[in-house]
């Protein structure tokens, strides 16, 4: 196995030897007993003549190839979500183009792969002049566009609503109006402030427990239009409590990138399906684990999942909103794209020490599928960042 020079936290260097990659055996004949979406990243086009901080350029072929990779492993794709840098470089016109291309790709892929796409209000800039009616109109515009593209909806949280809402009653008004118009039941996304500080106080309360009551009341009042809810609060306790109280027929989709193995496994009475950004990065491992789980092979499920948790906790460490850098970094190390350039220049959002530890943790989890390639690319990056040169 190849060696790589990596920095340590104390300022010294180490010669790190990679492990052999793990062969994550699939059981494709198994019918899974959990729905699993991977929130997929986008691949930037590094050759486009743009200002990467203000303009977006997407490598469409590499981006769609990664969706085919996820579908081939049995995952649904959650499209144009925060993992795709929605609200952090990926604007609404480009998001809609991404959704349309993914719908076409899903139709061509065969086997009716799962696809659901984010509809929000990100084309409406939060300001003192924005009204609740403006927020409703923005949601209506995006929901109509996503449905017209042929995708089901993931109803994303709204920064504009968080900025202008005076209390829970405004959330009830907005969600009830929007949900009354959708063609098919949606997945609501409650994205916590650790992912996006602009969403603090969502549902009208800073206290998550009181906010949960409001969210549950909205879902109960509109249960026929709600397929599920994705909760991204990084709190196992809150998700477990909320899923006990969901209206009948409404599914819990874990967005907890810290505690997903236990939440997916459940407690014997309730469980969570999955809609996770980390599944983009650990897709081969997660696919094998979910196959094993479907055959009640808990030993294999836990043995595969366990080493992915320290990796995920590292990728999603505070400031959590920069987790996309780690997701794209792993895609580059594993050869799914030929560069480590991101929309909005977000490849600079994590430190060299952070990426070095991510490399170690991915190796420990068996997730560097081609050690020679991973070592070559890591050595290149470390040299650019002044390590080992």
Task: Explain what you see.
Helix 3 runs parallel beside helix 5 (168-179) and helix 10 (283-294) packs antiparallel against helix 11 (298-305). The protein contains 15 helices and 10 strands. It is α/β, with parallel strands linked by helices and 389 residues long. An 8-stranded parallel beta barrel has the order 3-4-5-6-7-8-9-10, surrounded by 4 helices. The chain has one domain: Aldolase class I (TIM Barrel, Alpha-Beta Barrel).
Give the arrangement of secondary structure elements.
Layout: E1 3-7, E2 13-17, E3 36-39, H1 60-72, E4 76-79, H2 92-109, E5 115-119, H3 132-149, E6 152-155, H4 159-164, H5 168-179, E7 186-191, H6 208-221, E8 226-232, H7 236-244, E9 251-254, H8 260-265, E10 273-276, H9 278-281, H10 283-294, H11 298-305, H12 308-315, H13 323-333, H14 352-364, H15 371-384
Parallel strand pairs: 3-4, 3-10, 4-5, 5-6, 6-7, 7-8, 8-9, 9-10
Antiparallel strand pairs: 1-2
Describe the structure concisely:
The protein has 389 residues and is α/β, with parallel strands linked by helices.
The topology string of helices and strands comes to: EEEHEHEHEHHEHEHEHEHHHHHHH
Continuous helix count: 15
Shape-level CATH architecture? Alpha-Beta Barrel
Find the CATH topology.
Answer: TIM Barrel
């Amino acid at each position: 196995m190849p060696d790589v020079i990596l920095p340590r936290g104390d300022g010294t260097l180490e010669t790190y030897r990679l492990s052999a990659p793990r062969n994550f055996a699939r059981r494709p004949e198994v019918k899974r007993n959990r729905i699993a979406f991977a929130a997929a990243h986008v691949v930037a086009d590094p050759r486009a003549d743009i200002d990467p901080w203000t303009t977006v350029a997407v490598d469409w072929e590499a981006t769609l190839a990664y969706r085919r990779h996820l579908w081939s492993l049995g995952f649904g794709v959650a499209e144009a979500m925060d993992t795709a840098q929605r609200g952090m470089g990926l604007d609404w016109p480009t998001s809609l183009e991404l959704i349309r291309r993914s719908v076409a790709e899903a139709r061509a892929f065969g086997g009716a792969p799962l696809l659901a796409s984010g509809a929000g209000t990100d084309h409406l800039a939060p300001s003192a002049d924005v009204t609740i009616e403006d927020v409703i109109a923005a949601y209506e515009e995006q929901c109509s566009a996503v449905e017209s593209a042929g995708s089901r909806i993931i109803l994303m949280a709204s920064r504009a609503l968080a900025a202008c809402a005076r209390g829970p009653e405004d959330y009830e008004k907005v969600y009830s109006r929007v949900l009354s118009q959708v063609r098919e039941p949606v997945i609501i996304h409650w994205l916590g402030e650790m992912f996006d500080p602009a969403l603090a106080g969502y549902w009208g309360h800073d206290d998550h427990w009181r906010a949960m009551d409001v969210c549950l009341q909205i879902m109960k009042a509109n249960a026929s239009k709600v397929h599920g809810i994705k909760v991204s609060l990084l709190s196992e306790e809150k998700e477990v409590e909320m899923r006990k109280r969901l209206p009948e027929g409404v599914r819990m989709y874990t967005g907890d990138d810290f505690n997903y193995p236990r939440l997916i496994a459940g407690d014997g009475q309730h469980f969570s399906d999955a809609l996770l950004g980390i599944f983009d990065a650990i897709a081969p491992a997660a696919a094998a684990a979910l196959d094993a789980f479907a055959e009640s092979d808990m030993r294999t499920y836990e043995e595969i999942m366990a080493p992915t948790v320290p990796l995920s906790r590292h990728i999603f460490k505070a400031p959590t909103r920069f987790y996309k850098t780690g997701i794209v970094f792993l895609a580059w190390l594993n050869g799914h794209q030929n560069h480590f350039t991101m929309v909005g220049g977000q490849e600079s959002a994590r430190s060299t020490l952070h990426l070095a530890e991510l490399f170690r943790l991915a190796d420990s989890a068996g997730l560097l599928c081609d050690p020679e390639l991973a070592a070559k690319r890591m050595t290149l990056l470390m040299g650019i960042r002044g390590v080992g040169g």
